[in-house]
Design brief:
With 432 residues, the chain is an alpha/beta fold. It folds into 2 domains: 3-19 and 231-431, UDP-n-acetylglucosamine1-carboxyvinyl-transferase, Chain (Alpha-beta prism); 21-228, Enolpyruvate transferase domain (UDP-n-acetylglucosamine1-carboxyvinyl-transferase, Chain). Helix content is 30%, strand content 23%. The protein has helices spanning 21-33, 47-58, 93-103, 117-120, 125-133, 167-177, 195-202, 234-246, 265-272, 322-331, 351-360, 392-404, 424-431; strands at 2-5, 12-15, 38-41, 62-65, 70-73, 87-88, 110-114, 137-141, 145-151, 159-161, 183-187, 207-210, 213-217, 227-229, 251-258, 276-279, 295-301, 309-310, 335-338, 366-369, 372-376, 384-387, 409-412. The strands form 6 sheets. Strands 2-15-17-16 form a 4-stranded mixed β-sheet. A 4-stranded mixed β-sheet has the order 4-5-3-14, covered by helices on one side. It has a 4-stranded mixed β-sheet with strand order 6-7-9-8. A hairpin with a 4-residue loop joins strand 4 (62-65) and strand 5. The two termini are 22 Å apart. Bound molecules: shikimate-3-phosphate (S3P). The site of shikimate-3-phosphate has 11 residues, from helix 6.
């Protein structure tokens, strides 16, 4: 589907972004691993998170889709069923990287994973290597890509130092540790999103954080509270925030948004660029692991921006929003530089190439580097055509660029937005 976004007048009003994708994936998985039923409110109804519901059904969990909630009756930690066919993760990298953690310890059962063309180009060695150290048996295409097969085995705890900060890898290992013999310790070079930690604490798991190291021991069962509410996704909100900052005269309220410190790096970067985004953002929580997620309204006002440098330690806290930092950079005065973001090359697309080529095609002045990009602010974008390449965040980036551009943007493959934000264009329309 191709959609044309014309230059917009001021965006005004209030919008609640869709439910958090990361937290929805995790709740479906933890619900499936629980013995007691879990009622999920505001579960994200989007392509990625629906893939997760289908995956846990294939593994023996009962999923009841009621109008106002999803009820998951799990199999328990050690009783995932061997599915009839392959587990189709669709486009969902998070599902593909987290679920192996649970299944690797299901002794005697075999699980094959596959997904769409984009997923087939995304490496799984980053989870396969540590899981193998724990005793898992995993065979992947060309050693590192889907389709791949896990043969469940008895796992044992390890000490693992993550080579790059990755919430997906960290989460995968925490799930594996829940049924591994002994203790598992995981060290991250930099903090990344901590939703899994919070949910495991909420589920009664004795999980300890000591600086950059997490220690997880096995448990008999998970005891998630019977009802869990998914907050709105700050990564989806970021597209609305960027639109509110860039479309002249805009004033928006993003309501009830998740503001977990590990997810609000983009807001802090934007604020450093001079953006007016007001809200009750969470402070770093140190070694304490809260059992809940903070939410806040965010008040966004358009205004002038200055270039900035995003340093490597900020990257995991804004990883999915870095394309939007590039877009803000196009409208800012001076240079905007992102360093230490080589992970962008293995997302739903090579997001360094996609962002640089895509925004240059709209009149931007960007240069790719090995680990990020340099944007020379040109006080706006002319407009033109951008192709999402099937990447949901590239589709929404193009749409926001169109609203703020001089001549409008045609987004080819706008339907990709449904992976995380099916109502994106409707929400934008409601603000016009
Ligand atoms: C996610 C973690 C990030 C992020 C992805 C979702 C998660 O990936 O890019 O969209 O839910 O854990 P990495 O942890 O691999 O950087």
């Amino acid at each position: 589907m191709n959609v044309r976004l014309d230059p917009s007048g001021p965006l005004k009003g209030s919008v609640v972004p869709p439910a958090d994708k990361s937290i929805s994936h995790r709740l479906a998985l933890l619900g499936a691993m629980s013995d007691i039923p879990v009622h999920l409110h505001n579960y994200l109804d989007a392509a990625d998170t629906n893939s997760t519901l289908r995956a846990v059904e294939a593994l023996g969990a009962l999923v009841e889709r009621r109008p106002d909630e999803i009820v998951i009756r799990g199999t328990g930690l050690r009783e995932a069923r061997q599915p009839e066919g392959v587990i189709d993760v669709g486009n969902a990298g998070t599902l593909m990287r987290l679920l192996p953690g649970w299944l690797a310890g299901q002794a005697g059962r075999v699980f094959t994973f596959d997904g769409d063309d984009s997923i087939r180009g995304r490496p799984v060695d980053r989870v396969a290597a540590p899981l193998r150290e724990m005793g898992a048996r995993i065979e992947a295409t060309d050693g590192r890509f889907p389709p791949f097969t896990i043969t469940g085995a008895r796992l044992h705890g390890i000490h693992y130092e993550l080579p790059v900060a990755s919430a997906q890898v960290k989460s995968c290992l925490m799930l594996a540790a829940l049924i591994a013999n002994g203790e598992t310790t995981i060290r991250e070079p930099e903090p990344s999103r901590d939703h899994t930690e919070r949910l495991l604490v909420a589920a009664g798991v004795p999980l300890v954080r000591d600086g950059d190291t997490l220690t997880v021991t096995n448990v008999d069962e998970l005891a998630l509270p019977g009802t869990m509410i998914v907050p709105a996704d700050p990564s989806s909100a970021a597209f609305l925030i960027a639109a509110g900052l860039l479309v002249r005269g805009s004033r928006l309220v993003i309501a009830d948004c998740g503001v977990n410190w590990t997810r609000t790096g983009f807001i802090r970067i934007a604020q450093r660029m001079g953006a007016i985004v007001l809200g009750d953002l969470e402070d770093p929580t140190g070694d304490a692991i809260p059992a809940s997620e903070p939410i806040s309204d965010l008040d966004v006002t358009a205004g002038p921006l200055l270039g900035t440098t995003v340093e490597p330690h900020e990257v995991p806290l804004a990883i999915d929003e870095l394309p939007l930092v590039a877009l803000l950079g196009c409208f800012a005065e001076g240079e905007t530089v992102v360093r230490g973001a080589q992970e962008l090359r293995v997302k739903e697309s090579d997001r360094i190439a996609a962002v640089v080529d895509g925004l240059n095609g709209l009149g931007g002045d960007l240069e790719a580097t090995a680990d990020g990009f340099v944007v020379r602010g040109t006080d706006g974008l002319r407009g033109g055509t951008i192709d999402s390449g099937g990447d949901h965040r590239m589709a929404m980036l193009g749409a926001v660029a169109g609203l703020a551009s001089a001549e409008g943007v045609e987004v080819r493959g706008m339907d990709a937005a449904a992976v995380s934000y099916p109502g994106f264009l409707d929400d934008i329309d409601a603000l016009r």
